[in-house]
Amino acid sequence: MTSQIENAQFFRSLHTPQSPLFLYNVWDAGSSKAVERAGAKAVATSSWSMAAAQGYEDGEQFPLEDMLAAVARIAKSVNVPVTVDFEGGYAANPETVRRNVHKLLEIGIVGFNFEDQIVDGPGLYSVEDQVCRIRAARHAADSMGVPAFINARTDVFLKADPATAHDGLMAEALIREKAYASAGADGFFVPGLTDDTLIRQVCDVATLPVNIMTTSTREFGKLVKSGVSRISLGPVPYIALMSALEKRSETAHVV
């Protein structure tokens, strides 16, 4: 049986720009097993999808203990590494973040997304505050001896005013990447960034493997050429499946 440490080491090795990790995000044990059967090297949850599947909104509305129970079931159902969209760690202060990450790793998880937006609040944490939060998460993993992959997410682009040009946000994003790397992050996740030139620029400058979220598998080829090390789909798989289910249900009710 593969140990958590071995799974974590294997998962870390999958982040390469030459052959990036593709993650078809899941929301429960059933979707996880389906993705594993399809040949996935790892399983990644989507917080939006997990919350929606249980009737909640995204943004840590899915209660922590219930979310952990669902994640534990996923981890027991598959043999590949599991990484979790942990949003903001279900806490603002570093000490609670540390305790929550400890709970997550206790159930066998080997990686997690950790974002810098203030959940249920305006804007982002300051660089300094987020660095403290990442350090707390890193300490939790190190204290357990698990080389967990912390995928530091910045919402610089995702939370920006739609009228704001993304090239004007690059400096802040790269400052955050450097700071998060120094705090112990292992990856840099930039949801909302879609411009090919800017994606390539982030990949060229960043010291961490870059994760891009896309809405279509048709974009994978371009992202590989840009130097991305990890590609994910977020809530897209769940939305597509629920849409298909709804259409089939409508057809079934036609007399």
UniProtKB/TrEMBL annotation:
Full protein name: 2-methylisocitrate lyase-like PEP mutase family enzyme
Q: Name one Pfam family in it.
A: PEP_mutase
PANTHER family tied to this protein: CARBOXYPHOSPHONOENOLPYRUVATE PHOSPHONOMUTASE-LIKE PROTEIN (AFU_ORTHOLOGUE AFUA_5G07230) (PTHR42905:SF16), PHOSPHOENOLPYRUVATE CARBOXYLASE (PTHR42905)
Annotated keywords: Lyase
Q: Does the keyword Lyase apply?
A: yes
Q: Which InterPro entries match?
A: ICL/PEPM (IPR039556), Pyrv/PenolPyrv_kinase-like_dom (IPR015813), Pyrv_kinase-like_dom_sf (IPR040442)
Determine if Lyase is one of this entry's keywords.
Answer: yes
Q: Which CDD domains match?
A: ICL_PEPM (cd00377)
A molecular-function term among this protein's GO annotations: lyase activity
